[in-house]
Amino acid sequence: MKILILNGSPRSQGLISRMLDIMAEEARIRGAEVEAIPIRKLQVRPCTGCMACRSRQACVLPEDDAQRTLQKIQWADVLIVGSPCYWGNMNGHLKVVFDRIVYGMMGESPKGIPQALHKGKKAVIVSTCSTPWPFNIWFNQTRGVVKALREILKWSGFSIKGVIQKGGTKQHPELTESDKKKCRKIIRNL
Ligand SMILES: Cc1cc2nc3c(=O)[nH]c(=O)nc-3n(C[C@H](O)[C@H](O)[C@H](O)COP(=O)(O)O)c2cc1C
Predict the structure, then answer these.
(1) Which fold, 2-188?
(2) Which of 34, 70, 154, 165 is in Cβ range 3.0-4.6 Å of 142 for a Cys bridge?
(3) Closest residue (by CA) to atom 24 of ligand 1?
C-alpha cells in the first residue's frame, strides 16, 4: 500500500504533526510505503482562476510544488490529510495547493458534470483546534475543516476511511493515549 501524508500544519511539533507521525510509523510497521509532505515547506503560487487547466489538463503557471504534490497524490493509494482549523476551515497554504491541482483531482465532462479522478482510493482526515470539545463540533470548528476536506476528497473519488477531530488543544496541548490509539487504529483498518 502506498500512503501519502499531506501535513497542513505550519507547526512541525504541533498536534497534527504528532498524530500524522504516529500514523506514518504504524503504516511503515505494517509494510506500507509512506511519503509525507509538510505543506509549510512548499513553494506554491495561488490559483489565478483562469480555468485553462480544464481544457489543457495542466496548470498554466510555471511548475512549482503544486504540480509535484499532484504527482505524489496520483502515486498514492491512500491520502491522509491533516490540517489545523483556521477560521473554521483548513489552513490557507493547504487550500492553495488543492486549488492549484483541481484539474488533477476532479475532471469535468463536456457538459460540466464532475468526474472523480481518484476512484477506488482511500482517505483519512485529521483536524485540531483550540475550541474545546464538544464545541469544536457544534460550532463547526474542526467540523468545518472536515466538511471542506470531505468536499475535495469526495468529488475526487476518495472514500473516507477515518476522521479524527481533536478540540481543546490550548488547554490540552498533549496527545492522550486514547488519541494515539485512534491514530493507530485508523491505519490498521485501512
Ligand atoms: C490563523 C489561525 C486561525 C485559527 N482559527 C481557529 C478557529 O477558527 N477555531 C479554533 O478553534 N482554533 C483556531 N486556531 C487555533 C488552532 O486551530 C490550534 O492552535 C490548533 O490546535 C493548531 O494545530 P497544530 O498544533 O497541529 O498546528 C487558529 C490558529 C491560527 C494560527
Answers:
(1) Rossmann fold (3.40.50)
(2) 165
(3) 14
9 close to ligand 1 (CB < 6 Angstrom) = yes
C-alpha of residue 142 to centroid of ligand 1, in Å? 9
pLDDT in tens, 100-117: 999 999 999 989 899 999
pLDDT, tens digit, 9 for 90 and up, residues 13-49 = 999 999 999 999 999 999 999 999 999 999 999 999 9
14 ligand 1 Cβ < 6 A = yes
Among 50, 30, 19, 56, CA closest to 178: 19
Q: Which of 26, 41, 143 is nearest to 90 (CA)?
A: 143
Distance 94 CA to ligand 1 centre (A): 14
Q: What are phi and psi of 161, to 5 degrees?
A: -100, -10
Residue position matching grid coordinates 512549482:
64
Residue ranges per domain, the chain? 2-188
* Confidence at residue 85, expressed as pLDDT on a 0 to 100 scale: 98
Q: Give 51's contacts (C-beta < 8 A, 6+ positions apart).
A: none
47 grid coordinates: 490559483
Give the whole-angstrom CA distance, residue 103 versus residue 114. Answer: 11
Mutate to test the pocket of ligand 1, among 86, 127, 142, 146 (most ligand atoms within 8 A of CB): 86
